[in-house]
Amino acid sequence: MRIEKAEVIVTSPDRNFVTLKLTTDDGLTGLGDATLNGRELAVASYLSEHVVPLLIGRDAAQIEDTWQFLYRSAYWRRGPVTMASIAAVDMALWDIKGKAAGMPVYQLLGGASRDRMMAYGHASGKELPELFDSIRHHQELGYRSIRVQTGVPGLESIYGIASNKGLPGNEGVRYDHEPAQRGALPAQEDWDTRSYLRHVPTVFEAVRNEFGPEMPLLHDGHHRMTPLQAAKLGKSLEPYDLFWLEDCTPAENQEGLRLVRQHTTTPLAIGEIFNTVWDFQSLIKEQLIDYVRAASTHFGGISPLKKVMDYAAMYQIRSGFHGPTDISPVGFAAQLHVGLAIHNYGIQEYMQHGDKTNAVFEQAMTFADGYLHPGNKPGLGVELDTDEAGKYPYETAYLPYNRLADGTVHDW
Ligand code: CS2
Ligand code: MG
């Protein structure tokens, strides 16, 4: 079974997506997600210029060998563009292997370790009443676990708040197509860590008073704090029993996590911008985190995601794969198959794609009562409608960035 054709498809139904489609000489097709939010064309070009020529004629059954070949033969290792490209090839080959075997990919990874997978959704509101409405709305959609983000007094526009924008008809409720904005330049948002640190515990106190102690609550710090500030936030949130505090620091300074860890028992999740198993190496070995936030798409695909989770299992660290809408339905399916198969599944972020995206990508995945399942179609269970995809050409879109009150650029 040889790879005969490799196509890179860029489409922008609700947002930009980069998809690799491989076709074998016996007519099987496989899809892989290579979407890198705000830098999509760099990955599309890496794939078409440098990877596609290497794939034609290769044995489609050799997933591990192809991964190692693309990783090692490039000499220049890691980085989001390279790893998203390798991820797309890896996923597409798993998709093909599943179809060849007549089995969903999770069967090839060891079979299901559970019946269904708990998901969490994103509730947000600039003020508490909007936030409470958003939490109730998510409960109505079936979510049992909810991420909570709010505005901060004095700050006009910050990460994670639906009331900044939102979908037509869904303003103030969903945050699904955030945060990349179509347009020639990135939007500027504002930030003040001291105001944030004072405000967030009052929000969680209010949410617990309104909704009770039971519901798992999550929060994303989005890389903005120093280790000391993160330690302080973790400590001040302890009474509200968070499921996790995510990306409390930028995490390039991995040693900084030791300080956070020594000061708080709030569980920590990190890794949505990590690209390889090695980025997690010391964080896992030193047990500085509780959840692996990698996404199959930015992490080199299904093969390395399974490996990092097996390593994490030795330290009781669980999965919490990155699932925003900038992971395409293909990348999302890929990590659902991993999540169903591994023993140390934790939770899956699920923001829900829009109708146009769902028309481009036909999906076997299901979401019911707050739980996900990848479905039982052979392969990943996702097919791409090329006619639909062709309706939506690429549109320039950038993620926002932050400036402090004095004009300094800050982590976004
Ligand atoms: C986020 C993302 O889902 C999350 O936890 O941190 O919304 C992130 O901002 C985007 O994926 C950036 O592309
Ligand atoms: Mg995040």
UniProtKB/TrEMBL annotation:
It comes from the Bacteria. Residues 128-267 form the Mandelate racemase/muconate lactonizing enzyme C-terminal domain. One of its GO terms (molecular function) is hydro-lyase activity. One of its GO terms (biological process) is carbohydrate catabolic process. InterPro entries: D-mannonate_dehydratase-like, DgoD-like, Enolase-like_C_sf, Enolase-like_N, Enolase_C-like, Mandelate_racemase_C, Mandelate_racemase_N_dom. PANTHER family: D-GALACTONATE DEHYDRATASE-RELATED, STARVATION-SENSING PROTEIN RSPA. This is D-galactonate dehydratase family protein.
